[in-house]
């Protein structure tokens, strides 16, 4: 199973990269994906997550070919 992962805004800056890829044979939740790629950095509490452009919760299970996006909430004025 291959999952494409994208980071946006301040997450991209703090991690130093805009994307990643996870290859695994087991069942992974969105939170597992973060842990697999960013074990040294805790997932910020206010991060929004989307799978294939639909907002999801951290316990959502990803499937082969999915795209997971992590991004901080955006505010405007």
The average pLDDT value, as a whole number, equals: 92
CATH class: Alpha Beta
Query: Can you summarize the main beta sheet?
Result: 5 strands, mixed
| Through-space gap between termini | 41 Å
**Overall radius of gyration:** 12 Å
CATH H-level superfamily = Beta-grasp domain
Total domain modules: 1
Q: Which percent range fits the helix content?
A: 10-25%
CATH structural architecture: Roll
Going across the major beta sheet, what is the strand order?
A: 2-1-7-4-5
Order of helices and strands: EHEEHEEEE
Question: According to CATH, what is the topology?
Answer: Ubiquitin-like (UB roll)
| SSE class | alpha+beta
Number of DSSP-assigned strands: 7
Instruction: Supply the number of helical segments.
Output: 2
Percent of sequence in beta strands: 25-35%
Q: Flag low-confidence runs.
A: none
Overall morphology: globular
Description:
β4 (48-51) and β5 form a beta hairpin. Strands 2-1-7-4-5 form a five-stranded mixed beta sheet. The model has no long low-confidence stretch (mean pLDDT 92). With 77 residues, it is an alpha+beta fold. It has helices at residues 9-15, 30-37; strands at residues 2-7, 19-23, 28-29, 48-51, 54-55, 61-62, 67-71.
Keywords:
34% strand; 77 residues; alpha+beta
Give the SSE layout:
Elements: E1 2-7, H1 9-15, E2 19-23, E3 28-29, H2 30-37, E4 48-51, E5 54-55, E6 61-62, E7 67-71
Parallel strand pairs: 1-7
Antiparallel strand pairs: 1-2, 3-6, 4-5, 4-7
């Amino acid at each position: 199973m291959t999952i494409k992962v994208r980071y946006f805004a301040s997450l991209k800056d703090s991690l130093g990269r805009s994307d990643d890829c996870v290859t695994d044979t087991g069942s992974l939740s969105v939170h597992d994906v973060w842990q697999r790629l960013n074990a040294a950095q805790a997932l910020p509490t206010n991060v929004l997550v989307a799978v294939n452009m639909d907002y999801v919760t951290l316990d959502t299970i990803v499937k082969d070919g999915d795209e997971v996006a992590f991004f901080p909430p955006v505010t405007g004025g």
